[in-house]
Design a protein that fits this description.
This protein is of the alpha+beta class and 361 residues long. The protein has eight helices and 20 strands. The structure holds adenosine-5'-triphosphate (ATP).
Length: 361
């Protein structure tokens, strides 16, 4: 589903940043609308934290502009930018109680501060912990305190720098859902940095996938997963199968001498072009009945709870692995023995082709 077009409330325009001779950010353009939850997603070192720090005013860009609510904030110091921020390390004051930490930035009367702190602790589910100290809290609780502190002044913008990555999987999953629900409830525009694709897919309205200082694609989680614009995006988000293909003169797509159906919209190849076909593991179908076309051999079956991950090789192209996901309750699962051969179908409306570019991965 394409992202609904909403007016931009915040804009990065041509942001660049260099550290010595290293180009950390190259011409970043990104628009964010009010109330949107945007994830900056990418591998370590791609520049996402640098971009967040520039937005926070903790780092100065070399060129480019930053707009927020119609105001050019490119040179505004951090204190004038109206945001709350949560870092990966909880960054709480160890000598202050939860109440002291949450109320730290509130410049109001003691009575108002106490009321606001109690409201915030209710909001993040820590009502019973007001008098505790950070060392007496779990990692997840400390991050809730950090979140309450970031929200204390009701900022227009919430910045999150890998806020869940220090937590164990179960707490992370739980807090991720709570964070998303809270963000929706408050309607606070949020920018979160993460290298975790699952986190981005499950929390964001919009994902900006970054690679080597550039944004490769901006889209909804569905667009990023199903319609990746580059090979990098396809590989970084979820598992991607890649098969060499050629477009025949009659328009059909040829894989290892077999024609497969691929709707024109999914195919960027001109007749005669070679390219690479991309498909997700859930779009590889093992057919029970004999069928002409692609045949694959089962190499291995991995148990993954609700699904089986089937590692296949095409009989006519044995050097390339092909991964298929089969639901664990599919009767086919009981027949998936290593060495068995299966006719393979690809969900033609879901496959995409990329033209081979010399030097591309
Ligand atoms: N102050 C600095 N001085 C020199 N190089 C820096 C500095 N800050 C960041 N870099 C470099 O800029 C690049 C981008 O860093 P950044 O922290 O933005 O990446 P990231 O995508 O957030 O990665 P990670 O998830 O590992 O934090 C990295 O190669 C990093 O080494």
């Amino acid at each position: 589903m394409p992202a609904p077009q909403r007016p931009a409330w915040m804009r990065f325009e041509g942001i660049t940043k260099r550290f010595g001779t290293f180009q950390a950010l190259e011409g970043i353009d990104l628009s964010v609308s009010q109330g949107e939850f945007v994830c900056l997603l990418g591998p370590s070192g791609c520049g996402k934290t640098t971009l967040l720090r520039i937005l926070a005013g903790l780092e100065q860009q070399d060129s480019g502009q930053l707009w927020m609510g119609g105001r050019d904030i490119s040179r505004v110091p951090p204190a004038g930018r109206d945001y709350g921020i949560v870092f990966q390390s909880y960054a709480l004051f160890p000598n202050l109680s939860v109440t002291g930490n949450v109320g730290y930035g509130l410049r109001t009367s003691p009575a108002q501060r106490a009321r606001r702190v109690s409201e915030l602790l209710d909001l993040v589910g820590l009502a019973g912990c007001a008098d505790k100290y950070p060392a007496q809290l779990s990692g997840g609780q400390q991050q809730r305190v950090a979140l309450a502190r970031a929200l204390a002044t009701s900022p227009s913008l919430l910045l999150l720098d890998e806020p869940l990555s220090a937590l164990d999987a179960q707490v992370r999953d739980h807090l991720r859902r709570e964070l998303r629900a809270l963000q929706r409830k408050l309607g606070v525009t949020t920018v979160m940095v993460t290298h975790d694709q699952e986190e981005a897919l499950t929390t964001a309205d919009t994902i900006a996938v970054m690679n080597a200082g550039r944004i490769e694609q901006v889209g909804t989680p569905e667009e990023i997963y199903s319609l990746p614009r580059t090979r990098f995006v396809a590989d970084f988000v979820g598992h991607a199968n890649w098969l060499p293909v050629r477009r025949r003169a009659d328009g059909a797509i040829d894989i290892a001498g077999h024609a497969i159906d691929a709707p024109a919209a999914a195919c960027t190849l001109k007749p005669g072009d070679s390219g690479t076909l991309f498909c997700r593991p859930e779009d590889v179908v093992l057919q029970r009945l004999p069928a002409p076309g692609l045949l694959a051999r089962v190499e291995r079956v991995d148990f993954m709870g609700g699904i089986r991950r089937v590692v296949l090789t095409l009989c006519d192209l044995p050097s390339l692995p092909l991964i298929a996901h089969v639901m664990a309750n599919d009767p086919v699962c009981t027949l998936l023995h290593p060495g068995s051969r299966w006719p393979i179908g690809l969900r033609s409306e879901r496959v995409r082709c990329f033209v081979d570019v010399e030097g591309a991965a």
